[in-house]
Amino acid sequence: MPNSLVTADVLENIETGRTRLKLSDALDIAIALGVPLVNLFVDVQKPLENNPLFPDGKTNLQIYDEQRLDDFELQAEDTDFKKSGKAIG
Question: Which pTM value belongs to this model?
């Protein structure tokens, strides 16, 4: 993986259960893979099955769609913010 934050040791520790997956690690992995973070948590091969990570009974497809919509809205807000001439940070 091109991301230097995600080492083979980090991945091995997560995969073997020696280390719990932290959100920051998940984000680094998603960035290194070039995929949205939600792709790590939904099974796109089984879009109509309920996702066990989300106890509200939502399907993988519903979770994916909601997250993609949230991402789109955040990008739109960021673009609007930049257009207004306000500094970010």
Answer: 0.53
